[in-house]
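Regression test attached.
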Amino acid sequence: MGLRVIEVNHLTKLFGNAVAVNDISFSVEEGEILGFLGPNGAGKTTLIQLLLGLITATAGEIKILGIDLIKDREAILSQVNFSSSYVSMPTSLTLWENLSVFAKLYGIKNHEGKIDSLLTLFEINHLKDSLTRNLSSGQQTRLSLAKALLNSPKILFLDEPTASLDPDIADKTRTLLKSIRNKSRTTILYTSHNMKEMQEISDRIVFLDQGEIIACGTPNEIIQNFEEENLEDVFLKIARRKVENIE
Amino acid sequence: MSLVRIIALIQRHLYLYQRSLPRIMEIFFWPLMDLLVWGFITVYFQRFNIGLPRFVSFFLGALIFWDILYRAQQGISISFLEEVWSKNLLNLFVSPMRPCEFLAALMTISVGKMLTAGAASALLAWIFYSFNIFLVGISLIPFVFNLLVMGWAIGIISMSAILRYGQEAEVLAWGLGFLIQPFAAVFYPVSILPIFVQPIARMIPASYVFEGMRAVLETGAIPYESLMKAAFLNGIYLALAIRFFYYNLRIVKEKGLLLHRGTE
C-alpha cells in the first residue's frame, strides 16, 4: 500500500438544512489519479473546495500530506495546486506576467526557466507576451494548467480541466497528466463529465450522489458492480434512478 | 507574512496599470474635474467678496484632502474588485497567500494611488489657482497619514461587504466614502452642522483633519490635539475594519460563497 496523501474522515457539510456532503470518508494514495463522478449537485465541487479549505466543514477531519487542514492550511497550499475551467487568470496581463506573479506567490525561486518549460510543454510558448484576453478558451485552459504545475505540486486538484479543449489538446493534456504522475508521483484529483475521459485517466473513481459516496473502486469494478458496459451507462442508471424516485 | 508574496500581488496591479490607459485616466480624471469645476466656482464666489478669509485656499485644500481620502479607499476596494472582475479570486485563495498579505498588498497599492492622485491634484491646484498645499507645512504628513488610514478602513469595509454579498454590493466601492462626506467637515466647520449631528462628526477622524487644515491655513498653528484624536479614532476603526474582513471571510467560507465570488 502506498503513502496516504489525503485522508478524509466522516466529512460533513451542511448549508443551512441542506446536506451537501454527508459523512464521507476516503483516502488517496501518492501517485494515484482519483476521479470524482456524479450528477450535478452531487457534491463534487463542494468536496474539492472542502479539500482546498475554501469551504469550512461542518464536521469531520481532513488531513493532506499528513497535515491537518484546519491547523496549517498555508503549509498544505504551498504543496498543492488547482485548476478549473471556470476560473480565469487576469486577462489584462500577458501569459508570462500571470505565471510570474503566481510563481512568486508559490515562492518559486528562479522561476523564469520553469515558466518557459511549462509554456513549451503546453505549446503556448509563442504566446508568452500576448495578453491573456486574446487567448482562445482552450489556450486559457492550458495557461491555467501551466499555473497549476508551477510549484511542482504533490497533489493536483483539477475541476473539469478539459471542458473547453478540443479533442486533440484534451487527449494531449490527459497524456501529459499521466506522464507527470508517472514521473513525479503527483496525486491527481479530477472531476469531469466526460465519462470516457474518466474511464481512461482514473485509477479509481469515487461516485457521489446527493453528498454521499455510492460507489468507489477502479472504473472496471464500478462498471461490473452496476452490471453495465461502461461508465456512461452507470452514470445514466444512477441519474435516471434518481428521477424515477422523484416521480 | 511573506514580503515576496506581497510584492507579487502589488506587481500584478502594476502590470495592470502600466498598459491600461482608462485605469490611469481614472486616477487623474476626477481630481481634475473636481478642481476645475469647484475651483472656478470658488474663484467666482471670491469675486463677490463673501467676507470669508482664505475662502479659495480652504476650498482647494479640502478638495485635495478629500481626494486623498477617496483614492486611499478606492486603492483597496477597486483593487479587490479587479480580482473579482477577472475571476482570479479563487486562484489567489488556493495559493499559499495569507489574508493578511492580501490586505498588506492592497494597503500598499492604496498608498501608491493616493500619492499619485494627491500629487496630481496639488500640481493642478498650483497651476490653475496658484494654491500651494505645502503651505500647511510639516503638518501635511500627519494630515495625509490620518486620511490614508481612514481611507483604508472604509476600503476594507466596502471590500468585506463585496466579499460577503457579491457584486450587488459593488456600489459601496464608490459610494461609501460619500456617505460620510456630509458629516466629515470637508468644506465647512463642524459647528455649521445641526447640534444633534455634531456628535456624529466628532466620531469621524477626517473631521479633525479638515478642521485642522483650516486652522493651519488660518493661523499657522498645528492642532496637535485634533490630530491625536483623529489618530486614536483611526486606530480603532482600522482594527474594527480588519476584524470585519476576517469575520466576513469566515462567513463566506462557511456558506461556500467564495466560488460564487470567484466566478460570478
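Expected vs. actual: identical. The radius of gyration of chain B is 19 Å.
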